[in-house]
Structure formats: structure tokens, C-alpha cells
Amino acid sequence: MALRKRTRMTGLSIAALAAVSIAGWTYAQRGPDSVAPEKLLPARSIIYGKSNGSLLTEKAFKETASYRALYESGLMKAIEDAFDSMPNEIPNADQIEDAMRHVEKNGMSIAISDGMGMQPWGIIVVHEAVGGVDFIKEMLKQVPDLPAEIQEVNRNGRTISMTMIPKTPVEVGFWEEQGHLVIAVGIDAIRSAIAVADGDQPNLTSSPLYKKYLAEDPDFTVKSIGWFDFGSLQKMYGQMPVPLPNRQQVTIDEILDATGLDTLDHVAAFSGYKGEANWTEQIVSTSGKTTGLMDLLMQESITFEDLPPVPVGQSSLIASSFDWAKAYDTLWSVVENLSQYGPPDALDDVDEFLSDFERELGFQPIELLSTLGNVHCVYTDKHQGMFGLGGAVVISVKDADRLRNLLGRIYETAEAESRGDFLVQNVEKHGRTVDLLRFPDAPFLSPAICVDDDWLIMGLVPQAVEGCLMRLDGTLPSWKPTDAYAAALAEMPKEFTSITIVDPTQTYEFLLGFAPMLVGGLELAMKESRSFPEDFEFPLSPADLPPNEVVTSHLFPNVMMTTVEEDGLHSYARQSMPGIPFLGGSDGTTMVATSAVLVALLLPAVQQAREAARRTQSKNNLKQLGLALHNYHDVYRHLPQGTVPNDDLEPEDRLSWIVSVLPFIEEAALFNQFDMKSGWESEKNVRNAEMVIPALNHPSDPVNRVNGYGATSYVGVAGVGPKGPTLPVNDPKAGMFGYNRQTRFRDVTDGLSNTLAIGETNDPQPWAAGGKGTIRPLDKQPYINGGNAFGSNSVGGAQFLLGDGSVRFISENIDPGVMEALSTIRGGERLGEF
Fold first, then answer.
1. How far is CA 157 from CA 131, 134, 177, 194, 241, in A?
2. Separation between Cα atoms, residue 808 and residue 817, nearest integer Å
3. Closest Cα to residue 458, out of 345, 568, 589, 591?
4. Over the range 304-325, which residues count as b (16 or more CB within 10 Å of their CB) and which as e?
5. What is the pLDDT of residue 530?
6. Which residues does residue 293 pair with via DSSP β-bridges, in sequence order?
7. Hey, which end of the chain has fewer CB within 10 Å, N or C?
């Protein structure tokens, strides 16, 4: 017995139910009182969508390859018969099915308008839905706990069923209008919809976008159409202020201008049938000269002659034009533009981040990007490996020598810092050097990279790279479009900024090959679920499915292409049926899967190199602090006290030892602004404590502030045990720092090279604050990456400064006893290697 769940229904739910439950009426052809649905939609439709019913498009659909493959083959009949035979306990299932069939046959339209006075509203028009209102009301009566009563009101000679969404000014109404069912939702939506229907407000046929796209018949049968009128939305709301944290006055127009989105006018899409093909077009329309993010779309056009030679038997290929150097400059310009609306130091923070990134990388990113051309090609190569292992990514090159040099520097850094987890082996192939990227822990993976004079070639296996080199040399044959591909390309522009070619045949051969097994599996699963009677028989037999070639023989290659035009982008797609090549076929996987795996393989090496650079920067920070401690000791004959002396304050309220060494880390000006007799959060010092000091931040730490204060990733070592910071200098568990004591180098009888002074922490705290935020004892095991004392975002351990100024990386698996011995200044322990 089916269970019925009691739910509360909102006004929006009522609208949704009305949209899908339009049944119980007589399906009638358009009568003399019916008007075109567009005349019921507002001219100011920011969002518009229309689905033409099959009554208008069925003839064109029956001419397509997809109709022959799905319907003439008998495949869809077998599936539909199976669903019709399934038991159905959904209430009013027949009526709901009738409603869905009516929408499929007659279609529906939807529009969202910005309204007048910023009162948005939406309207749904279900075409030819005579009699739908009464049935919707009957359906609503069966819904328990409706939050509001459906009322009937008379408006301009119409009987309208309506309700209000509780606690909002939003109304929902539905009624029959000139041969159609109308559902209006929004603020004052009913009045607005009636005004359009009566001609008191302009309808969609007066819209510039309607005149551009719908006034004349296109050269294909349109099944659906839609648009998003961004330009009109901007005109309406462009001067609206945007609240910012710094209370700076800025409008939406200014934000759009900073990003370059101010030149976006509208986006439109069409789909339908053109001869034997399913046809789709998408348009991104711009106004004026594009800048910023919109300019990234306007890439240089290329042709097939610009692409590298690809393997024979190609079934899937992606090629595109993209200028990486231009994109880098554009994105940086957008960041600079937006920074004026952020915090006062936003641009400085971005500059600092970029400087850190360049320091980690070893060169400026633009140097690498400038060596690359704009042509990119990703393809599969069935000759070199199964499951997509033969795939390759090929990018045109402008400066091969410079690119080889930069890649070599990346390899060297990755090898040096990976601790043997990443190796590069060079082999000579056809007069070029091929770099094999080896991962000892995963020896079955062997991606390769080669920089030819004109192309950067990356493959999941070295054979894919060598095959590309041989095709470039002409010693291996290259793919040429077959008649089927040529026919598809003949309907497309000759120049493009991107193209995707997919043969869907292999997708459906794979799916249909598994279909008999899948049918049996579904039957078993349904019986095991015990959701059906014991005598239930699955209504679909493996024998009901047609042979594969009856379906696939009608298919032809799909081609998707994007072009740049004077007023924006125009994309075209010509398809027999959607194709997913990675679901089978002799060439294994798609170029998308290939590129994703390539990135997945190369990313660890790049991340290791970046992490190594960050660890090196942190090591330099520790060395700078070590030099500061030694210089402080030279001047004062002792190390700084753990907190600045102040008997009137608790340690946690005092200034930290870091404040004392500020003059020795090139922050003398900041030091001179501190009132050493006041607490770190006092009115006199709080502004100083908010400053971020780069030398105190580990590059891997995600934040450099804590509660608005500048943070430190480095803390002093305060001995062993909870009382460590308060122990006298001669206690065997005392460390280099204590709250109320000064340590001299001669007090460190264990030896400066055997005693820890400062360590990294993954729990940054305000650097100006005294107490446990800036000096910490070992009081909870594991001592590294376990408690709240020491640790880092680096894998496996953390770095520490020793008393002699050296820096060591200490494993998180160090023996706790050894770690305790290192943390005391006169424990008398004997230490070996650590």
C-alpha cells in the first residue's frame, strides 16, 4: 500500500502544481478566440523560454537520424511499453500523464519581467489548455494543510483563482486567457498579466529580441527558444547601490564596468531540427568594445589547417583558440579594478600574494604563458592505449627554447623537494627530447612531455607523444575527414574559436551492448527490493531490444563549433544523437577524460614544487627570526623575555617577545609606535597589533589575521609541561622562553645546536599578544601536528629554529622523548641524530 506523506504547500508549490497538472480538459485545436502565446507575455521579459509542441515540430523530427535510430528501430516502443506496464500507485497518475502529454504536444511559454518600480513577476502560459483551471482546483483540494485558501476573484471580466504566499506580497493566480491557461506569480502579477492580455501594456511581439529572433522564420524547425536580456536588466538596476563592508558607495554599473560585464547585452539559445540533424544555436551578444571578462571570449579565429595532425581513425577531438598571456593580463586587470572597492590594503594583499607565488614558482607566470601559442588540441589515440591512455594534449608554441628552460626549472625543483616521489627521465625520440615523468610509488603511470619547435605535446603514455612527433614528421599517416565528417563540417563556418567533434556511434554500441545485462539486473533488483508483488514480471525482456546496428546505423558525427562575430559569440551544434565517447569504443575515452587525467597526474608534481617553495620561504622566515634573536642577544646580553615585563598585567595581556625583536626584523618604525607599558589590546597599541608582518606568516597558512589582528605562524619554545613558561632558568624542563625570565646563551648547557628556540604552528595567534599565543610548552602528545603547540601545513612534520640559528625539519613521528630533550635548555640528555 502506497504511503502518503503529509506536506505543507506554499504558494510557489501551488504554482508548480498548476504548471504540471493541467489535465482533465478536452484537447482542442486553436479556436478563433485563441491568440499567439507571445501576445500574453510582457515586452519587458528579462527571461523568456518557449517550447513548441510536437504538433508543430513532429514532421521535422521524423526526418532526423535520431527519430530513425530511436523510433523506427523499435527501441523507444519497447521502453515505452515497459513503462506503461509498470504498476502505478501515484494518485491521479492518469490525469498527470495526460497533462504531460498535452504540454509535450502543445507546448508552453514562460517569462519573467522586471516589472514596474522593481516589482518582478513571472507568467506561465500553457498552450491550448482549455478547461485546465477546474482540474487544478480539484487537484488542490486533495492537498492537505494548504497554507492559504484558494479564492475566486473577478478582474476585468475574468474569473481568477488566486492566493497569497503567506507573509509576503507575492500573489499566485491562474485562469483561462484567450484559449490558454495562464499562471501568474509575483508582486501585482495578476494585474500586470491582465494589462498585457488587454493591450494596456506592450506584449512580447514588440520586444527588440522578439523582432530579432522570432519575427522571421529561421532556416530550421525550432523546438525551443529562450533568452536572458542582461542589458535591459542592467539599465533597470545599474544605478542601484551595492553595500560594501568599507561603506564605500558603489553601484552595480561600476562593478560591471570593473569586470567588463557591462558589455554583455543578452544570451539566446535555440534548438530544433535541420534536415536529418538535431540543430542547436547559442548566442552571446555584446554591445560596444569588449573588455575584462567578456574580452576573454573574443579569441583569435583558427581553421583546421592550424591544428596539429591527429591520429587516423579519430572519433573524438576538441580544439580551441585561447591566448593564455592575454588572459593573465586581463584577469590581473580585473583584479586591480575590483580592488578599489575592497579594503584599503586589498591591492597590496593581492600584490603580496602574487609576489609570493612568483617566488615559489621561481619565475613570473607570464613568462611561461608567453611561450605558448593560442592553438589547443585534445584527442584520443586508439593505437597507443586502451581506456584513453593513448590520449594527448597539444598546444602551439611561440618560444620553444624559453619553454624548455622553464619546464626544466620546474622539474629540478619538483625533483629536489619530492624526496624521490617524482623523477624526470630524458629520452631522445626523432631528434627531440621527451621528458618521462616517473612516480616510483605508481610505476604503472608514465606520462610524457615534449617541446617541439612548434608544439608542446603531453601524453599519458610516451607512445602518444612519439606518435604525434612522427605525424609531424610525416612518417605516420594523419586523420582526414571522412565523407560523414565532411558533410557535417560543410554546414559549419570555416573559421572558429573552438570545435568539438564526436562520433556517437561508439557510445550507443557500448550502451546497447550492456543493455541485455542491464535489463536482467534491473529485474533482479526490483524483485529483491520486495516493492512489487511476488508474481510481478519485469515488462521488458532482453529480446525486446533491437540489434545494435539497427540503432547505430543511422548515426553520424556530431560537430559543435563556436565563432566570434562583430557583436559577440555564436555557437552551432549539429548532432545525430548526443555522444559520450568514454562509454566505449576502440579508442577508450574522450579527450576530456584524457586531459583531466593528465592534469591529475601532473598536478601532484606542481603542488610538490609549490609546497617546497613555501617550505623554503618559511625556513627563510625562521632564519630571519633566528638572526634577530642573536642580534638582540648581542645588544642586551640575553634573549627577549617571553612577554614584555609588566607586573600590572597577566602574561596573556602583555606584549609578546616578538614586539621586542621588531627592530631586528626591519620593523623599527612599528616598534617605536608601541607603548611598552600598556597591554597589547590597549587603546594605544591595538592599531599596531592589527598590522600584518609577512616575515611572521607561513606561506601555506590560509589566513594571516586572527580576529582582525596580525597573526604569527611562529612561536617560542617554552620547555616541557603545562608549567614550562613559568619555570626558572635552572629547571631541567625549562625551555628557551619563559613569561618572566631572560635566557642567556650560556644558560643553554645542552648546546645551542641541540635546543629548539622557535617552531612553526598550524594554530596562528596574534603576534603582539603575550601568553600561550606566542610561547608554548610541550604539554600534549603528539607534539607535532597533534596538539595545539607546534605543526604546519607541510606534510609529515614542521620546521624549527635551533639556538645556533640553523633550521631543521622535524618529523611528526619523532620519538616524544627526543622532542622533549630538544625543547629544554639544560636537561642534560644525550641526543643522537633526529
1. 17, 18, 11, 10, 41
2. 17
3. 591
4. eebbbbbbeebbbbbbbbbbbb
5. 58
6. none
7. N
CA 399, distance to chain mean position in Å, is 31
Are residues 545 and 263 in contact, defined by beta-carbon separation less than 8 angstroms? no
Compute the chain's Rg from CA coordinates.
35
Taking each helix axis from N to C end, the angle separating 252-259 and 230-237, rounded to the nearest 10 degrees, works out to 140
pLDDT, residue 130, reads 77
CA–CA dist 34, 100 (Å, integer): 21
Give the per-residue pLDDT at 455. 97
* Whole-number Å distance between alpha carbons of 327 and 333: 10
Q: Which three cell numbers stand for residue 751?
A: 648546546
Q: Side chain identity at 310, as an amino acid letter?
A: V
- pLDDT score recorded for residue 477: 94
In contact, 664 and 634? CB cutoff 8 Å: no
Going by C-beta distance under 8 Å and a sequence separation of 6 or more, which residues neighbour residue 406?
363, 367, 368, 371
442 CB burial (10 A radius; 0-12, 13-18, 19+): exposed
Phi, psi at residue 621, to the nearest 5°?
A: -60, -45
* Euclidean distance between CA atoms 823 and 834, whole angstroms: 13
Q: Which helix (H) or strand (E) holds 278?
A: strand 277-286
State the cell numbers at 204. 512580447
DSSP state of 459: E
DSSP 3-state of 589: coil
Query: Among candidates 40, 34, 46, 35, which has minimal Cα distance to 202?
Result: 40
The series of mean pLDDT values per 10 residues for the chain, 834 residues long, is 35 45 41 80 95 91 92 85 66 70 90 81 91 75 69 91 88 92 93 95 94 84 94 89 73 92 95 94 93 93 94 86 94 87 71 70 86 93 68 94 92 78 91 92 84 94 93 94 86 92 83 75 65 68 84 91 93 84 39 44 51 80 94 94 93 94 92 93 92 90 86 94 93 93 93 93 92 92 82 84 92 90 88 67
Residue type for position 240: M
What is the rounded CA–CA span in Å between residue 613 and residue 367? 18
Integer CA distances (angstroms), 748 to 631, 731, 828, in order: 17, 11, 10
Contacts of 480 (CB under 8 A, 6+ apart): none
* pTM: predicted TM-score of the whole model, two decimal places: 0.67
SS3 for 64-123 is: CHHHHHHHHCCHHHHHHHHHHHCCCCCCCHHHHHHHHHHHHHHEEEEEEECCCCCCCEEE
SS (H, E, C) 710-721: EEEEEEEEEEEC
Neighbours of 477 (CB within 10 A): 12
For 110, 170, 194, the CA distances from 164, given in Å and listed in that order, are 20, 6, 17
Contact (Cβ atoms closer than 8 angstroms) between residue 81 and residue 541: no
pLDDT given for residue 834 in this prediction: 65
pLDDT of residue 15: 46
The confidence score (pLDDT) of residue 2 equals: 32
| Distance of alpha carbon 238 from alpha carbon 445, whole angstroms | 53
Please give the torsion angle defined by the CA atoms of residues 602, 605, 610 and 611, in that order, rounded to the nearest 10 degrees: 130
Task: Give the orientation angle of helix 93-106 with respect to helix 11-20, to 10 degrees.
Answer: 70
Nearest CA to 667 among 648, 635, 699, 689? 689
